[in-house]
Amino acid sequence: MIQLTGNTLTIHEAKRVLFDNETVEISAKSMEKVIASRQAVERIVKDERVVYGITTGFGKFSDVYINSENVEELQLNLIHSHACGVGDPFPEVVSRAMLLLRANALSKGYSGVRPVIIDTLIQFLNAQIHPVIPQQGSLGASGDLAPLSHLALALMGEGEVFYQGEKVDASKALADANIQPVTLQAKEGLALINGTQAMTAMGVVAYIEAEALAKQSELIASMTIEALRGIIDAFDEDVHIARGYQQQVDVANRIRQYLSDSQLVTKQGELRVQDAYSLRCIPQVHGASWQALDYVKEKLEIEMNAATDNPLIFNDGEKVISGGNFHGQPIALAMDFMKIAIAELANISERRIERLVNPSLNDLPGFLSPEPGLQSGAMIMQYAAASLVSENKTLAHPASVDSIPSSANQEDHVSMGTIASRHAYQILLNSRRVLAIEMICAMQGVEFRGVENMASLTKEFYHQGRRIVSSIVKDRVFSKDIEALSAWLCAKRE
């Protein structure tokens, strides 16, 4: 059971909820803050105070006063009008992450919602009811308005959800799970949609998978080193301590551990004096990606526990301030940084693939073919990797440098952070396929060298991989192998 406090949620805990379906509850202390905050909202409505989003319209309509008898209609209209998402839905696990992160943010007690709103979000999580949320339509400022409006629709019993492996009407899923739909009251619609939970949820899922892929990339690279009889001296600890980056030192240490008892690696001057950069500089390149991922993790864990609503309610309603915590710039920059970090893992992997298949660069059979000439072997797998790497380069263009004004120029600078997070995830998918291709080629390469000569750890990884993709003894439809191994890497998150 994960207990939400609004302040302590970690990536590790989120992983347990998202991928292991661990249940969730709100802490009693946090619920006390939620109740006090709600009482402040009700006093504002009763006293007919002019407070943005509670007794006024939204955006450019912030100067329009709304009478107390119309506040529920105001919230309903807000959700209906803002549910403008388009395109394919977010992956179901991302929708689940949005529920988790929104419940956690509201648990801070700054948003003025009734306890029933948080309770319903948690009921959705624990019953594994996940709103169908279109991916496109958010500017990443003023909150992820369009995506989160689709989440709010589901809480109201409208729209569609994923439930028990099917896409069904939200009303049906709620009835089957014995969950009552909510009727939004003052401020609650705004509290649900004014936040960065779409970009952050996508970012959390992308980070969890990227962290696993970065670890896998080192094992795959180690197998490639064996297939190419790489020089182990380049991974000597003194070399990397001399540079000073801890992540680089750590990568080199892991490579040495993976290859500690290998009979396939060589020493300087034994076969050649130096390896190409794609082998020799693995710690430097992969280590730099780890530096970026560490930065991303730090920002995500801050944002996961951030109050991103507007307005925020302090001091039992004595201080209600309209600010800009909904602006997604910190996550937008982090997602753009993650895009580059993951893309580079694929970039250097594709260069290692080339060294595995190019007979001009090694002493292996051309394109690892069982019958060079008659059979093409891994020739076109390198093409596919090159295509994916090239696509990553276009996706890696920073989304955060763009901004288009909205709401009649009231909202005149936006982050595009949700676009950045979506592109980061696509780069991740592409990069995993590139690394799957490298693994297929590396497994074939070590077979020519002698699997019995491999290091213990890489040999075990080889045998695991061979249970998914068989040895290339004849040309076949390699697309199936690439997708199967990519799916296996995805599922193998530890």
UniProtKB/TrEMBL annotation:
Reaction it catalyzes: L-histidine = trans-urocanate + NH4(+)
Pathway info: Amino-acid degradation; L-histidine degradation into L-glutamate; N-formimidoyl-L-glutamate from L-histidine: step 1/3
Cross-link named 5-imidazolinone (Ala-Gly), sites: A141-G143
Record PTM 2,3-didehydroalanine (Ser), positions in chain: S142
InterPro entries attached to this UniProt entry: Aromatic_Lyase, Fumarase/histidase_N, HutH, L-Aspartase-like, Phe/His_NH3-lyase_AS
PTM field: Contains an active site 4-methylidene-imidazol-5-one (MIO), which is formed autocatalytically by cyclization and dehydration of residues Ala-Ser-Gly.
Subcellular location: Cytoplasm
An annotated GO cellular component: cytoplasm
Swiss-Prot/TrEMBL GO biological process terms: L-histidine catabolic process to glutamate and formamide; L-histidine catabolic process to glutamate and formate
EC assignment: 4.3.1.3
Keywords from the UniProt entry: Cytoplasm, Histidine metabolism, Lyase
Molecular-function GO term, any one: histidine ammonia-lyase activity
Enzyme superclass (EC): lyase
Sequence similarity: Belongs to the PAL/histidase family.
Protein name: Histidine ammonia-lyase
Gene name, Swiss-Prot/TrEMBL: hutH
